[in-house]
Write a structure and sequence with these properties.
Helix content is 41%, strand content 16%. The chain contains 13 helices and twelve strands. The longest helix has 17 residues.
Length: 305
């Protein structure tokens, strides 16, 4: 049984692709980040049914959205074929933001409104499909955030909102003040980071009927070549499963996440066109229950209780 190509992110959320493409490393592509190179990645994704693109204002030293937007300016018709997710709230020390003396977070009404306006200009669009609060801040005022998000949604500049890297308690706190539902929670999730399975994060997604997004699903490449004991154990199991399913390691890792009932949306981070095409095959893989737990046990180094 294969995984559907698309999913409703939430009951009142947008329809998105089951795999998303992340632009975090777009400016680190050895072949450059010019318009034609970015277009080639966009088109490869679309050809594979990957229509959801994950951004953040800080990616690429505040230049990632602009590189992607240049491609959309060259071919504006592509915007109608995709869903754009972006994030805000992290303030980096960077030449592009000379006022930032140190890394911090800002969820003031003014910053939220200004950040979205900047993202819209950079992405060459009049709206983003989903806006995420990138990381929780001790100074986040939920009423001020709610007011800003309500205004952005009312203006049609943001269609839906969500969070990233929050705790379940922080999600509940924010949701209690928002006039609109949260439609996703983006977290780091892979066999070397099992905490979201255990700390209530994915349980909360199931309860709220929202699809979480998984960043770094390959553990930043550690599962492919890392030398740690856990990496070696997981890789050995994946190699064995690869022979069984006729699949590559990254395909199995995406399929492992896709198997979860919360309908996780893994975010691809590769700059290689052939790896994008290869990743899409994960949608045709349905891991048997015992194979799924074999990966879990390899990560922990012990059988489940």
């Amino acid at each position: 049984m294969s995984t559907p190509l698309r999913v409703n992110m939430a009951v009142e959320g947008p329809e998105v692709s089951r795999l998303a493409y992340g632009v975090w490393r777009i400016l680190k592509d050895p072949e450059g980040a010019g318009v034609q190179r970015v277009l080639s990645k966009i088109q490869t994704c679309l050809d594979c049914g990957i229509t959801t693109f994950d951004h953040a204002d800080v990616y690429g030293g505040y230049r990632g959205e602009e590189a992607f937007g240049a491609a959309l300016r060259a071919h504006p018709g592509l915007r109608q074929r995709m869903e754009l997710v972006t994030k805000c709230g992290i303030m980096l020390v960077d030449p592009a933001r000379p006022r930032n003396r140190l890394k911090h977070y800002d969820y003031s009404r003014q910053h939220l409104l200004e950040s979205v306006e900047c993202s819209l200009r950079n992405l060459a669009t009049d709206h983003v499909d989903v806006l995420l609060l990138h990381r929780p801040s001790p100074l986040l005022d939920p009423d001020e955030v709610a007011e800003a998000l309500r205004l952005l949604v009312d203006q049609g500049k943001v269609l839906h909102v969500g969070v990233s890297n929050f705790t379940p308690a922080q999600v509940d706190m924010l949701a209690s003040r928002l006039p609109m539902p949260l439609v996703t929670h983006q977290v780091e999730l892979h066999p070397l980071r099992l905490e979201p399975f255990l700390d209530g994060t994915l349980d909360q997604c199931l309860r709220r009927r929202i699809s979480p997004m998984a960043w770094s699903p390959l553990a930043g490449g550690r599962l492919m070549s890392g030398q740690g004991e856990a990496e070696a154990r997981v890789r050995a199991v994946l190699l064995e499963l690869g022979r069984k399913y006729g699949a590559e390691l990254d395909q199995l890792l995406y399929a492992w996440l896709l198997r979860h009932p919360s309908r996780i949306i893994p975010i691809l981070g590769t700059n290689r066109l052939e790896r994008i095409t290869s990743a899409a095959r994960a949608l045709t893989l349905q891991l048997e229950v015992q194979d799924w737990f074999a990966v879990w046990s390899a990560s922990t180094g012990t059988e489940v209780p």
